[in-house]
Sequence to fold (900 residues):
Amino acid sequence: MTFASIIGHDRQKDLLRRALSSGRLPHAYLFEGPAGVGKRLIALALARAIFCQQGNGCGDCAACRKVDHHNHPDLHFVEADGSAIKIEQIRTMQKELSYRPLEAPKKICVIDDAEKLNLAAGNALLKTLEEPAANTLIILLTARPDALLITIRSRCQRLPFARIERKRLMEVLCEQLAIDETEAHILASLANGSFKKALGKDRDLYIEGRRELLKTLTGLSPGSVLPLFNFAEKLAQDKEMLPEILEIFQAFYRDLLLYRHGRPESELVNIDLMEKIHRVANDESTPSLLGKLSALDQTRRQLARNVNRQLAVEVLLMHLVA
Amino acid sequence: MSYLVLARKYRPQSFEDLVGQEHVSRTLVNAINSGRVHHAFLFTGARGVGKTSAARIFAKALNCERGLSPQPCQQCPSCLEITAGQGLDVFEIDGASNTGVDDIRELRENIRYLPSHSRFKIFIIDEVHMLSINAFNALLKTLEEPPAHAKFIFATTEPHKIPITILSRCQRFDFRKISLLAITEHLRKMVNAEQVEISDRSLALVARRGEGSMRDALSTLDQVLAFCGNRVADEEVQGLLGMVDRRLLLDTVEGIVEHDSRRVLDSVRRVDDLGHSFRRFCQELVESFRALVLIKVVEEPGDLLETTVDELAQLQQLADRGGVEDLQRVLTLLVKAEAELAGSTFPRLTLEMTLVRLTHLPPGKEIGALLRKVEDLERRLAGSGPVAVVAAGSPLAAEKSPPVHREEPRPTKVVPVAESTAVAEPIAAVEPPLAASAADQASWPELVQHVRKERPRIGSILEHGRPVRFALPELEVGFVAGSFHLEQMKDAETAEIFQELAEGFFRQPLKVRIVAVDGDYGDRVPPSLAEERRSRETGRKEQLEQEARNHPVVKAAQEILGGEIVEIKPIDKESPQG
Fold:
């Protein structure tokens, strides 16, 4: 991976390149931005640029290959062990960092999902993060910078990463998945600027499953309760997919909201279902749409707190068809 | 030598360098000068304000070979050692990594020996809040009476996590957040030393990003310098810090103030296209609305707002278009949205929803004016009833003696349950009714209405009750014996709530009794509201039928067609023309 082969993030790449060339590379970076936009790739590209024997991250020299294969002796990864990064891991890392680099000019440590540092581990990191040994670079990656200790944030140079632009994402999707533009548009919109999402397991759900789901949803009526409960049961069974399904619903109601406010088609998500949007939007008012979107939001929050799934979905559907 | 970030390169080395903590440095300097140096110190305060630096400077001052002085020489081996972080007699311990009781035991073992070549053995425990409770307790005795050659300095951002027994053994220093001005001045010194060209405006932006922490500001400056080199352009700084363009921001504010949902949605799209963080945008919106509220409330808001004159004029214009209440409502919703955005999976939608909601806010009315209106209405509606009662009731209320009232048995207990003649209880004879009570049967419907408003369930039960005795402060409510409503009202809780509500209504303590009455008790007991309504309705129905029969059209139809009237149905109860 070189900087050039990573899509998007031109500003960030530029910044890192300049810091590298001017020798103003700090000892700690905090890469923050949505999941799956390429933070880790950038970190690896940076490591390669620093380690490379040619000095340009060529990809052919021994150092570059070692970075690519994750077996460079001076490149360390700390990842969550279970649900959290624990203090033992940080202690091991600190010990590792106390030695001089073996081959490369620097030792680099990448802490992935830094928001998973538990309290003890996070605090144990503070002194190292403030004044590590010379020739050390610590890179923290996180999707939720606010979940980090404020004292950690203050010790790093923060580098925010933005979502990948939709247009850019669309182009890549068209190219890599060989799908048409409409589908790419939908996929890109739902993935919300994250490659991981657009290319991951959700693809089928987003394209095919979505039409089915929305058809069933709009087919429900407040009068007949039975189909509603059946639908709720079906949704609640699929624990893994439920968040994504709610996202689809959210996107649909957002479309209605935007449609009612006369936004152009390019901003909507479900552009293959314009007819349905047109039909449903006429029955809705702005306050009712806002109410439904709030209900969706609330359900998402409830599901994150381990409620009775089916009950939550039933209540949600009743809100939605009301 | 690898690159040192500014915060490390320019770490203060003497008390004079310490920015914004004059109260701390002065106390420490005076302590040294007067020779009254405590043996344990606790430095607390937000991140990046100078706690660790102060601890190191203080250690230097204590151990300087040129003698105990507030101005360490910076040249003797001891000073140099400490600056390099390798002092033999200064132990800088990471409290977060060495948390256990064993680490403290080791420290106690160590503390007994005299310092190797300095005056004091100094233990700096950073992040001390992470020590385990056992570790803290193991430290107590040592901390209370350490050997004469030992000094402790603790530093932490979270003093509330430290046991009170530790706190009481330390001299505590609270480090303040550093003012924007002080940070800016300090940054200016640094960029001069680094020979960097940067405008005051950009420097102020960087300083503001620090939010009172010098290290945060320096990290930001580091980043700016890494990106821009030695000539820093304003636009680059703005872009780098993810600042939203003022024009876009003001456009959005205008859209919200003018309730133009199309325009605010367009702003969201632009924010998305520019790749700004939605949260950042929302934060800036919050700041703008804060400015608007301030402009409304404060006469000379210039000092409170850090804006240019042009911006102020623009904001002033916008502020004129909305009321304070409206602006505050917008502000509240935005603050809420800002918090939601932090955890939102679909931030654009969250922002869109919030902004659309803001543009659909009905214009607020001033609460004071509304209250006045309601009072006015009440006065007009009330006429005689409760207003008179209130007037007559208030002197009574002044006379009342609450303890006596509380000793009264609960109303449910005095209710003679199954007797239909209970109405004739001789209580009336024992206690003559108070002459002052102005209320009469007429206020019964109002009382029911009042209860209904507060507790709809009890209200609807009361509709079936009859005001058997209405001589305040005594109130007897009758229900048909054996009826569901009687059972309901006999429930202790319900009765209590009713009593409270009734007392609130008449503003005086009452004796409420629930009694059973015979179903056909007849004229001696006034009818319940439900009965009244029913009889009124039958009367109306009869009248309607009569009218229909006598209606000329109906009559004509009967005559011409020779028909017969089978049924008469009122079409709509509410509209008589039906």
Chain B has four domains: 6-174, 180-240, 246-359, 382-527. The domain at 246-359 of chain B is CATH 1.20.272.10 (Zinc Finger, Delta Prime; domain 3). Residues 387-438 of chain B have pLDDT under 50 and may be disordered. The longest strand of chain B covers residues 150-156.
